[in-house]
Protein backbone atom coordinates (compact mmCIF):
# COMPACT_ATOMS: atom_id res chain seq x y z
CA UNK A 1 0.00 0.00 0.00
CA UNK A 2 1.28 3.45 -0.94
CA UNK A 3 -0.02 7.00 -1.08
CA UNK A 4 -0.12 8.91 -4.33
CA UNK A 5 -1.14 12.55 -3.99
CA UNK A 6 -2.59 11.72 -0.56
CA UNK A 7 -4.72 8.90 -1.99
CA UNK A 8 -4.17 5.34 -0.77
CA UNK A 9 -3.44 2.73 -3.42
CA UNK A 10 -3.03 -1.02 -3.33
CA UNK A 11 -0.84 -1.66 -6.35
CA UNK A 12 -2.56 0.52 -8.99
CA UNK A 13 -6.04 0.53 -7.47
CA UNK A 14 -7.34 3.61 -5.64
CA UNK A 15 -8.92 2.33 -2.43
CA UNK A 16 -11.49 5.11 -2.10
CA UNK A 17 -12.65 4.47 -5.66
CA UNK A 18 -12.74 0.72 -5.03
CA UNK A 19 -14.96 1.27 -1.98
CA UNK A 20 -17.52 2.88 -4.30
CA UNK A 21 -17.70 -0.38 -6.26
CA UNK A 22 -17.42 -2.93 -3.46
CA UNK A 23 -19.60 -2.71 -0.37
CA UNK A 24 -17.55 -2.12 2.78
CA UNK A 25 -16.25 -3.74 4.84
CA UNK A 26 -14.15 -5.96 2.58
CA UNK A 27 -10.75 -7.57 2.64
CA UNK A 28 -8.35 -6.74 -0.15
CA UNK A 29 -5.09 -8.49 -0.93
CA UNK A 30 -2.09 -7.58 -3.08
CA UNK A 31 -1.00 -10.28 -5.52
CA UNK A 32 2.38 -8.59 -5.95
CA UNK A 33 3.02 -8.58 -2.20
CA UNK A 34 2.01 -12.24 -1.94
CA UNK A 35 4.34 -13.18 -4.79
CA UNK A 36 7.22 -11.21 -3.26
CA UNK A 37 6.67 -12.76 0.18
CA UNK A 38 6.81 -16.29 -1.25
CA UNK A 39 9.89 -15.57 -3.34
CA UNK A 40 11.62 -13.85 -0.41
CA UNK A 41 10.91 -16.79 1.89
CA UNK A 42 12.33 -19.20 -0.68
CA UNK A 43 15.39 -16.99 -1.16
CA UNK A 44 16.08 -16.80 2.60
CA UNK A 45 16.28 -20.59 2.80
CA UNK A 46 17.50 -21.38 -0.72
CA UNK A 47 20.60 -23.27 0.46
CA UNK A 48 18.41 -25.50 2.65
CA UNK A 49 15.82 -26.28 -0.04
CA UNK A 50 12.95 -26.94 2.39
CA UNK A 51 9.47 -28.20 1.70
CA UNK A 52 7.32 -25.13 2.39
CA UNK A 53 3.84 -26.07 3.59
CA UNK A 54 1.62 -22.98 3.85
CA UNK A 55 -0.39 -22.84 7.07
CA UNK A 56 -3.96 -23.02 5.79
CA UNK A 57 -5.36 -21.91 9.15
CA UNK A 58 -3.90 -18.43 8.54
CA UNK A 59 -5.96 -17.94 5.37
CA UNK A 60 -8.04 -20.60 3.64
CA UNK A 61 -9.40 -18.67 0.64
CA UNK A 62 -9.48 -21.12 -2.26
CA UNK A 63 -8.15 -18.61 -4.81
CA UNK A 64 -5.26 -17.68 -2.54
CA UNK A 65 -4.42 -21.36 -1.99
CA UNK A 66 -4.39 -21.88 -5.77
CA UNK A 67 -1.90 -19.01 -6.15
CA UNK A 68 0.25 -20.46 -3.39
CA UNK A 69 0.10 -23.90 -5.03
CA UNK A 70 1.21 -22.37 -8.36
CA UNK A 71 4.34 -21.08 -6.60
CA UNK A 72 5.16 -24.65 -5.60
CA UNK A 73 4.12 -24.60 -1.95
CA UNK A 74 2.44 -27.40 -0.05
CA UNK A 75 -0.02 -27.11 2.84
CA UNK A 76 -0.10 -27.53 6.60
CA UNK A 77 -3.66 -28.38 7.66
CA UNK A 78 -5.33 -28.85 11.05
CA UNK A 79 -8.77 -30.19 10.10
CA UNK A 80 -10.53 -32.32 7.51
CA UNK A 81 -12.06 -29.15 6.08
CA UNK A 82 -8.66 -27.58 5.54
CA UNK A 83 -7.38 -30.81 3.99
CA UNK A 84 -10.33 -30.86 1.59
CA UNK A 85 -9.73 -27.20 0.72
CA UNK A 86 -6.02 -27.78 0.08
CA UNK A 87 -6.77 -30.74 -2.20
CA UNK A 88 -9.45 -28.71 -3.99
CA UNK A 89 -6.83 -26.02 -4.64
CA UNK A 90 -4.74 -28.65 -6.41
CA UNK A 91 -2.05 -29.07 -3.76
CA UNK A 92 -0.54 -32.55 -4.08
CA UNK A 93 -1.12 -34.93 -1.14
CA UNK A 94 2.64 -35.55 -1.04
CA UNK A 95 3.06 -31.90 -0.03
CA UNK A 96 0.49 -31.90 2.78
CA UNK A 97 1.10 -32.38 6.50
CA UNK A 98 -1.75 -32.74 9.00
CA UNK A 99 -1.13 -31.15 12.41
CA UNK A 100 -3.27 -30.57 15.49
CA UNK A 101 -3.86 -32.05 18.95
CA UNK A 102 -7.39 -33.35 18.42
CA UNK A 103 -7.70 -35.18 15.11
CA UNK A 104 -10.81 -37.35 15.08
CA UNK A 105 -10.80 -40.96 13.80
CA UNK A 106 -12.76 -39.73 10.76
CA UNK A 107 -10.10 -37.08 10.00
CA UNK A 108 -7.27 -39.57 10.45
CA UNK A 109 -9.01 -42.12 8.22
CA UNK A 110 -9.54 -39.51 5.51
CA UNK A 111 -5.90 -38.36 5.67
CA UNK A 112 -4.72 -41.96 5.32
CA UNK A 113 -7.09 -42.49 2.40
CA UNK A 114 -5.68 -39.43 0.62
CA UNK A 115 -2.06 -40.62 1.14
CA UNK A 116 -0.80 -37.29 2.46
CA UNK A 117 2.88 -36.86 3.29
CA UNK A 118 2.62 -36.88 7.10
CA UNK A 119 0.20 -37.02 10.00
CA UNK A 120 1.95 -35.19 12.82
CA UNK A 121 0.79 -36.97 15.99
CA UNK A 122 0.75 -35.21 19.36
CA UNK A 123 -0.04 -37.96 21.90
CA UNK A 124 0.26 -41.69 22.53
CA UNK A 125 -3.51 -42.11 22.21
CA UNK A 126 -3.43 -40.49 18.79
CA UNK A 127 -0.69 -42.88 17.69
CA UNK A 128 -2.83 -45.80 18.85
CA UNK A 129 -5.81 -44.54 16.84
CA UNK A 130 -3.62 -44.05 13.74
CA UNK A 131 -2.25 -47.56 14.17
CA UNK A 132 -5.72 -49.07 14.63
CA UNK A 133 -7.13 -47.37 11.52
CA UNK A 134 -4.04 -48.18 9.45
CA UNK A 135 -4.29 -51.84 10.51
CA UNK A 136 -7.93 -52.01 9.35
CA UNK A 137 -6.98 -50.40 6.03
CA UNK A 138 -3.90 -52.65 5.71
CA UNK A 139 -1.72 -49.58 5.31
CA UNK A 140 1.58 -48.35 6.69
CA UNK A 141 1.20 -44.67 7.48
CA UNK A 142 3.94 -42.04 7.53
CA UNK A 143 3.79 -40.21 10.84
CA UNK A 144 5.56 -37.33 12.52
CA UNK A 145 5.91 -37.00 16.29
CA UNK A 146 5.46 -33.48 17.58
CA UNK A 147 7.95 -32.61 20.27
CA UNK A 148 7.19 -29.99 22.91
CA UNK A 149 10.68 -28.50 23.48
CA UNK A 150 9.63 -26.39 26.51
CA UNK A 151 10.76 -23.14 24.88
CA UNK A 152 9.08 -19.80 25.51
CA UNK A 153 9.18 -17.79 22.29
CA UNK A 154 8.35 -14.62 24.29
CA UNK A 155 5.40 -13.65 22.11
CA UNK A 156 1.75 -13.21 23.10
CA UNK A 157 0.81 -15.76 25.78
CA UNK A 158 -2.29 -16.76 23.82
CA UNK A 159 -0.26 -17.81 20.76
CA UNK A 160 2.54 -19.66 22.57
CA UNK A 161 2.70 -23.36 21.73
CA UNK A 162 6.12 -24.64 22.82
CA UNK A 163 6.07 -24.55 26.65
CA UNK A 164 5.38 -27.44 29.01
CA UNK A 165 2.11 -25.82 30.11
CA UNK A 166 0.84 -25.56 26.52
CA UNK A 167 -1.42 -28.31 25.16
CA UNK A 168 0.75 -29.02 22.14
CA UNK A 169 3.28 -31.75 21.49
CA UNK A 170 4.98 -34.43 23.58
CA UNK A 171 7.59 -33.90 26.32
CA UNK A 172 11.14 -35.04 25.58
CA UNK A 173 10.89 -38.04 27.94
CA UNK A 174 7.58 -39.21 26.48
CA UNK A 175 8.88 -38.54 22.97
CA UNK A 176 11.77 -40.96 23.49
CA UNK A 177 9.44 -43.51 25.11
CA UNK A 178 6.95 -43.40 22.20
CA UNK A 179 9.72 -43.59 19.64
CA UNK A 180 10.91 -46.85 21.21
CA UNK A 181 7.36 -48.19 21.54
CA UNK A 182 6.20 -47.56 17.97
CA UNK A 183 9.33 -47.63 15.81
CA UNK A 184 8.81 -51.32 14.92
CA UNK A 185 5.10 -50.95 14.25
CA UNK A 186 3.79 -52.72 11.16
CA UNK A 187 1.33 -49.93 10.46
CA UNK A 188 3.17 -46.76 11.54
CA UNK A 189 6.35 -45.42 9.99
CA UNK A 190 7.77 -42.60 12.16
CA UNK A 191 9.49 -40.47 9.55
CA UNK A 192 9.45 -37.00 11.07
CA UNK A 193 10.23 -35.04 14.20
CA UNK A 194 7.86 -32.09 14.27
CA UNK A 195 7.97 -28.96 16.42
CA UNK A 196 6.27 -25.56 16.58
CA UNK A 197 6.95 -23.07 19.38
CA UNK A 198 4.53 -20.21 18.74
CA UNK A 199 3.63 -17.37 16.45
CA UNK A 200 4.71 -13.80 15.62
CA UNK A 201 8.35 -14.61 16.48
CA UNK A 202 10.81 -11.83 15.61
CA UNK A 203 13.94 -13.16 17.34
CA UNK A 204 15.93 -16.05 15.86
CA UNK A 205 17.25 -17.16 19.28
CA UNK A 206 14.16 -19.17 20.35
CA UNK A 207 14.47 -21.02 17.03
CA UNK A 208 18.16 -21.64 17.75
CA UNK A 209 17.24 -23.15 21.14
CA UNK A 210 14.58 -25.25 19.44
CA UNK A 211 17.08 -26.67 16.95
CA UNK A 212 19.49 -27.45 19.80
CA UNK A 213 16.78 -29.43 21.59
CA UNK A 214 16.06 -31.36 18.38
CA UNK A 215 19.78 -32.07 17.96
CA UNK A 216 19.92 -33.39 21.53
CA UNK A 217 16.90 -35.67 21.01
CA UNK A 218 18.40 -37.17 17.84
CA UNK A 219 21.71 -37.79 19.60
CA UNK A 220 19.95 -39.49 22.53
CA UNK A 221 17.74 -41.70 20.38
CA UNK A 222 20.12 -42.23 17.43
CA UNK A 223 16.95 -42.40 15.36
CA UNK A 224 17.09 -41.68 11.62
CA UNK A 225 14.35 -39.25 10.72
CA UNK A 226 13.64 -38.45 7.07
CA UNK A 227 12.08 -35.08 7.90
CA UNK A 228 12.43 -32.40 10.54
CA UNK A 229 9.34 -30.19 10.57
CA UNK A 230 10.37 -26.88 12.15
CA UNK A 231 6.87 -25.39 12.04
CA UNK A 232 6.34 -21.73 11.33
CA UNK A 233 5.66 -18.76 13.55
CA UNK A 234 7.81 -16.22 11.71
CA UNK A 235 6.51 -12.76 12.58
CA UNK A 236 5.86 -9.62 10.55
CA UNK A 237 6.37 -5.93 11.30
CA UNK A 238 2.91 -4.77 12.41
CA UNK A 239 4.28 -1.56 13.95
CA UNK A 240 6.50 -0.51 11.02
CA UNK A 241 9.40 -0.17 13.46
CA UNK A 242 11.73 -2.29 11.28
CA UNK A 243 11.95 -5.08 13.86
CA UNK A 244 12.22 -8.19 11.74
CA UNK A 245 13.28 -11.79 12.15
CA UNK A 246 16.92 -12.32 11.12
CA UNK A 247 16.43 -15.03 8.53
CA UNK A 248 20.16 -15.20 7.75
CA UNK A 249 21.00 -16.19 11.32
CA UNK A 250 18.12 -18.67 11.48
CA UNK A 251 19.21 -20.17 8.16
CA UNK A 252 22.79 -20.51 9.44
CA UNK A 253 21.54 -22.37 12.54
CA UNK A 254 19.72 -24.84 10.30
CA UNK A 255 22.68 -25.25 7.94
CA UNK A 256 24.93 -26.14 10.87
CA UNK A 257 22.30 -28.65 12.03
CA UNK A 258 22.16 -30.21 8.55
CA UNK A 259 25.92 -30.78 8.57
CA UNK A 260 25.28 -33.35 11.31
CA UNK A 261 21.89 -34.70 10.23
CA UNK A 262 20.89 -35.57 6.66
CA UNK A 263 17.19 -34.76 6.71
CA UNK A 264 14.64 -32.81 4.69
CA UNK A 265 13.48 -29.63 6.41
CA UNK A 266 9.77 -28.71 6.42
CA UNK A 267 8.49 -25.22 7.21
CA UNK A 268 4.87 -24.25 7.94
CA UNK A 269 4.75 -20.46 7.40
CA UNK A 270 1.42 -18.64 7.38
CA UNK A 271 1.56 -15.08 8.66
CA UNK A 272 4.96 -14.37 7.04
CA UNK A 273 3.50 -15.31 3.64
CA UNK A 274 0.02 -13.76 3.79
CA UNK A 275 -0.12 -11.36 6.76
CA UNK A 276 0.97 -8.07 5.19
CA UNK A 277 -0.73 -8.77 1.85
CA UNK A 278 -4.19 -7.93 3.21
CA UNK A 279 -6.16 -4.99 4.58
CA UNK A 280 -9.69 -4.68 5.87
CA UNK A 281 -11.31 -1.71 4.16
CA UNK A 282 -13.95 -0.02 6.31
CA UNK A 283 -16.18 3.02 6.23
CA UNK A 284 -16.89 5.42 9.09
CA UNK A 285 -20.56 5.25 10.15
CA UNK A 286 -20.45 7.88 12.89
CA UNK A 287 -17.95 10.04 14.75
CA UNK A 288 -19.19 10.27 18.31
CA UNK A 289 -17.50 12.93 20.42
CA UNK A 290 -17.21 12.86 24.20
CA UNK A 291 -15.32 15.16 26.54
CA UNK A 292 -12.09 13.14 26.42
CA UNK A 293 -12.19 11.25 23.14
CA UNK A 294 -13.70 10.71 19.73
CA UNK A 295 -15.28 7.33 19.04
CA UNK A 296 -14.79 6.51 15.37
CA UNK A 297 -17.52 3.94 14.74
CA UNK A 298 -16.75 1.76 11.73
CA UNK A 299 -18.92 -0.54 9.64
CA UNK A 300 -16.44 -3.35 10.33
CA UNK A 301 -16.61 -5.14 13.65
CA UNK A 302 -15.04 -7.90 15.72
CA UNK A 303 -17.04 -10.45 13.75
CA UNK A 304 -15.18 -9.29 10.62
CA UNK A 305 -11.77 -9.09 12.28
CA UNK A 306 -11.30 -10.78 15.64
CA UNK A 307 -7.61 -10.41 16.47
CA UNK A 308 -7.71 -7.12 18.44
CA UNK A 309 -10.61 -8.37 20.60
CA UNK A 310 -9.18 -11.88 20.95
CA UNK A 311 -5.49 -11.12 21.47
CA UNK A 312 -5.29 -7.39 22.05
CA UNK A 313 -3.22 -7.29 18.86
CA UNK A 314 -2.06 -4.07 17.21
CA UNK A 315 -3.04 -3.15 13.65
CA UNK A 316 -2.42 0.23 12.08
CA UNK A 317 -5.47 2.10 10.76
CA UNK A 318 -4.78 4.51 7.93
CA UNK A 319 -7.06 6.81 5.89
CA UNK A 320 -7.88 6.24 2.23
CA UNK A 321 -7.38 9.98 1.75
CA UNK A 322 -4.91 12.01 3.80
CA UNK A 323 -6.17 15.48 4.75
CA UNK A 324 -3.25 16.50 7.02
CA UNK A 325 -5.62 18.03 9.60
CA UNK A 326 -4.39 16.44 12.82
CA UNK A 327 -6.73 16.42 15.82
CA UNK A 328 -4.89 16.05 19.16
CA UNK A 329 -7.55 14.06 20.93
CA UNK A 330 -7.89 10.37 21.75
CA UNK A 331 -9.48 8.47 18.89
CA UNK A 332 -11.01 5.07 19.65
CA UNK A 333 -11.71 3.07 16.50
CA UNK A 334 -14.58 0.75 17.32
CA UNK A 335 -17.17 -1.44 15.67
CA UNK A 336 -20.97 -1.51 16.02
CA UNK A 337 -21.25 -4.81 17.93
CA UNK A 338 -22.72 -4.70 21.44
CA UNK A 339 -19.46 -5.66 23.17
CA UNK A 340 -16.91 -3.35 24.78
CA UNK A 341 -14.16 -5.52 23.27
CA UNK A 342 -15.40 -4.61 19.78
CA UNK A 343 -12.54 -2.18 19.49
CA UNK A 344 -9.64 -2.04 17.02
CA UNK A 345 -7.26 0.71 18.10
CA UNK A 346 -6.87 3.75 20.36
CA UNK A 347 -4.61 6.66 19.30
CA UNK A 348 -3.72 9.91 21.04
CA UNK A 349 -4.16 11.87 17.83
CA UNK A 350 -5.42 11.31 14.32
CA UNK A 351 -6.37 13.27 11.26
CA UNK A 352 -9.87 14.80 11.20
CA UNK A 353 -12.35 12.02 10.52
CA UNK A 354 -15.78 12.49 8.96
CA UNK A 355 -18.69 10.16 8.42
CA UNK A 356 -18.34 8.05 5.24
CA UNK A 357 -14.56 8.37 5.28
CA UNK A 358 -12.81 5.18 4.20
CA UNK A 359 -10.11 3.64 6.40
CA UNK A 360 -7.83 0.63 6.01
CA UNK A 361 -7.05 -1.70 8.91
CA UNK A 362 -3.59 -2.94 7.92
CA UNK A 363 -1.87 -6.33 7.86
CA UNK A 364 -5.03 -8.41 8.15
CA UNK A 365 -4.15 -11.10 5.61
CA UNK A 366 -3.44 -13.68 8.31
CA UNK A 367 -6.09 -14.71 10.86
CA UNK A 368 -8.50 -12.14 9.45
CA UNK A 369 -11.27 -13.64 7.35
CA UNK A 370 -10.64 -17.12 8.82
CA UNK A 371 -11.72 -15.89 12.26
CA UNK A 372 -14.75 -14.04 10.92
CA UNK A 373 -18.18 -15.05 12.21
CA UNK A 374 -21.86 -14.17 12.00
CA UNK A 375 -22.00 -12.79 15.54
CA UNK A 376 -24.96 -10.38 15.89
CA UNK A 377 -26.15 -12.04 12.65
CA UNK A 378 -23.76 -9.91 10.64
CA UNK A 379 -22.61 -11.04 7.21
CA UNK A 380 -19.00 -12.00 6.55
CA UNK A 381 -17.24 -9.53 4.24
CA UNK A 382 -16.13 -10.00 0.66
CA UNK A 383 -12.51 -10.65 -0.32
CA UNK A 384 -10.81 -8.92 -3.24
CA UNK A 385 -7.51 -9.77 -4.96
CA UNK A 386 -5.72 -6.84 -6.58
CA UNK A 387 -3.19 -7.47 -9.33
CA UNK A 388 -1.66 -4.30 -10.79
CA UNK A 389 -4.63 -2.33 -12.22
CA UNK A 390 -7.15 -5.17 -11.98
CA UNK A 391 -9.18 -6.56 -9.13
CA UNK A 392 -11.16 -9.75 -8.72
CA UNK A 393 -13.77 -10.77 -6.15
CA UNK A 394 -12.34 -14.01 -4.72
CA UNK A 395 -15.08 -14.44 -2.12
CA UNK A 396 -18.46 -12.72 -2.22
CA UNK A 397 -20.01 -10.92 0.71
CA UNK A 398 -22.61 -13.12 2.38
CA UNK A 399 -26.27 -12.55 1.63
CA UNK A 400 -28.05 -11.31 4.77
CA UNK A 401 -31.24 -13.15 3.76
CA UNK A 402 -29.39 -16.48 3.82
CA UNK A 403 -28.11 -16.11 7.35
CA UNK A 404 -30.93 -14.21 9.05
Structure notes:
This protein has 12 helices and 22 strands. It has 2 domains: 2-29 and 275-403, Lyase, Ornithine Decarboxylase, Chain A, domain 1; 31-273, Alpha-Beta Barrel (TIM Barrel), CATH 3.20.20. The relative contact order is 0.16. Helices cover 29% and strands 25% of the residues. Strand 5, helix 3 and strand 6 (74-77) form a beta-alpha-beta unit. It has 404 residues and is of the alpha/beta class. Residues 158-163 have low confidence and may be disordered.
Q: Could you give a short account of the major beta sheet?
A: 9 strands, mixed
Class computed from helices, strands and strand pairing? alpha/beta
What is the average per-residue confidence, as pLDDT, rounded to a whole number?
94
CATH superfamily of the largest domain: Alanine racemase
Number of helical segments with 4 or more residues: 12
Short descriptors:
single chain, 404 residues, Lyase, Ornithine Decarboxylase, Chain A, domain 1, 2 domains, nine-stranded mixed beta sheet, 12 helices, 29% helix, elongated
Write the layout of secondary structure elements.
Blueprint: E1 2-4, E2 7-10, E3 13-14, H1 15-19, E4 26-30, H2 31-44, E5 51-55, H3 62-70, E6 74-77, H4 80-88, E7 96-98, H5 105-113, E8 118-121, H6 124-137, E9 141-146, H7 172-182, E10 188-194, H8 204-221, E11 227-229, H9 247-260, E12 264-267, H10 271-274, E13 278-289, E14 293-298, H11 307-311, E15 317-319, E16 326-327, E17 330-334, E18 343-347, E19 350-351, E20 358-362, E21 382-387, E22 390-395, H12 400-403
Parallel strand pairs: 4-21, 5-6, 5-12, 6-7, 7-8, 8-9, 9-10, 10-11, 11-12, 14-17
Antiparallel strand pairs: 1-2, 2-3, 4-13, 13-14, 13-20, 15-20, 16-19, 17-18, 21-22
Helix pairs in contact: 5-6, 8-9
Amino acid sequence: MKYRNNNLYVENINIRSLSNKISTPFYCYSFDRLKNNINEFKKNFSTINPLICFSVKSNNNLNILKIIKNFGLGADVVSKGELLRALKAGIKPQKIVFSGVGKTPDEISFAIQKKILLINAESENELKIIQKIAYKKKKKVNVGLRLNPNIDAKTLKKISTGRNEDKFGISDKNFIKLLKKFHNSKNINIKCLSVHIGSQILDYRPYSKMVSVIDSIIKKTKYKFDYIDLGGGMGIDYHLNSKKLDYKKYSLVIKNFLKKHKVKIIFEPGRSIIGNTGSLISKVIYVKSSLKKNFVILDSAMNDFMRPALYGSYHRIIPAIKNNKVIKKIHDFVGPICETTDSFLSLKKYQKVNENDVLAICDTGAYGIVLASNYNLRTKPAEIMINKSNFKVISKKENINKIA
